[in-house]
């Protein structure tokens, strides 16, 4: 089925209940039968997985797999921001009137995404994780994690055809986010859910997205190191980075494939 037809079909179904059903199936023992089919269908690189393919007892266990030691090098350049995930760059640059274009004629309202007023234009990177990607999210810059939040919402798919078709998709979808206090100022890391991604978790809380029914947020104070664990998608989705203008110079462009740990921005 074409991506556009998938989006049209999903407009007529209960997406959150559908995502919960998909999650239940992915966590069931029956789903182990689909792991190899999933790998073949999406061309997943299993050479970096922590365990042999046959050791994953469910599709969810495989999807949330860790990498084997040394599979990714975390940039140690003092001026660098590391990619928090394996992804394709869907958008990057500075906002205009508080928004950044994510598809022709479609924009992302950044203040709505992060859930607070913003007094200036912001620098933004939108990183799309496809089904073939590694789905854990890591700390892009050392500092302190000072706030986490959960925002309930819809669960539209986030592949490019959906972004082109659904207005305001990212800021309307379910999401969990953290604010990092770094030596270059605050850095928002927003994990945006999608259809089939009703479960998102963060290291700072036991709460899971899509298990909740109302917005939640908490101020915390946790030291974090570059490349450390931050969260995980239980199916693929999108990470959005939001930083004050001029704090970072992006080293990536739309369409680039990035790997967790590689340099994606630097400061002067």
Give your account of this protein's structure.
The protein is of the alpha+beta class and 268 residues long. It has two domains: 61 residues, no CATH class; 187 residues. The chain has seven helices and 16 strands. Strands 11-7-8-9-13-5-2-15 form an eight-stranded antiparallel beta sheet. A three-stranded antiparallel beta sheet has the order 1-16-14, with no helix packed on it. It is globular, with a radius of gyration of 18 Å. About 2% of the residues have low confidence.
Alpha plus pi helix count: 7
The outline comes out as globular
Q: Which whole number gives the mean pLDDT?
A: 88
- For the secondary structure, the number of strands is 16
SSE topology string: HHHHEEEEHEEEHHEEEEEEEEE
Helix content: 10-25%
Number of domains: 2
Query: Which range does the strand content fall in?
Result: 25-35%
Question: Rg to the nearest angstrom?
Answer: 18 Å
Largest sheet properties: 8 strands, antiparallel
What gap, in angstroms, lies between the N and C termini? Answer: 47 Å
Which spans have pLDDT < 50 for at least 5 consecutive residues? 8-12
- Write down the oligomeric state: single chain
Structural class from helices and strands? alpha+beta
Lateral strand order in the biggest sheet: 11-7-8-9-13-5-2-15
Task: Describe what is shown at a glance.
By secondary structure, the chain is of the alpha+beta class.
């Amino acid at each position: 089925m074409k991506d556009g037809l998938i989006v049209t079909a999903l407009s007529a179904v209960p997406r959150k209940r559908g995502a919960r059903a998909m999650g239940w199936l992915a966590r069931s023992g029956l789903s182990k039968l689909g792991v190899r089919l999933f790998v073949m269908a999406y061309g997943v690189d299993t050479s970096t997985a922590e365990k042999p393919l046959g050791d994953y007892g469910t599709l969810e266990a495989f999807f949330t797999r860790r990498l084997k030691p040394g599979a990714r090098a975390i940039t140690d350049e003092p001026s660098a921001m590391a990619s928090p995930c394996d992804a394709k760059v869907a958008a990057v640059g500075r906002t205009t009137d508080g928004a950044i274009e994510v598809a022709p004629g479609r924009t992302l309202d950044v203040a709505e995404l992060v859930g607070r007023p913003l007094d200036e234009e912001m620098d933004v990177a939108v990183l799309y994780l496809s089904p073939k990607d590694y789905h854990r999210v890591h700390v892009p810059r050392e500092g302190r994690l000072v706030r986490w939040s959960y925002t309930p919402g819809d669960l539209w798919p986030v592949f490019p055809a959906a972004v082109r078709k659904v207005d305001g998709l990212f800021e309307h979808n379910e999401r969990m986010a953290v604010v990092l206090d770094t030596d270059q100022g605050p850095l928002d890391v927003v994990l945006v859910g999608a259809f089939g991604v009703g479960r998102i978790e963060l290291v700072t809380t036991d709460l899971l997205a899509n298990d909740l029914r109302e917005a939640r947020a908490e101020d915390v104070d946790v030291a974090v190191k570059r490349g450390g664990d931050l969260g995980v998608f239980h199916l693929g989705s999108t990470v959005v980075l939001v930083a004050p203008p001029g704090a970072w110079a992006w080293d990536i462009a739309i369409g680039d494939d990035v790997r967790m740990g590689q340099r994606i921005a630097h400061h002067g």
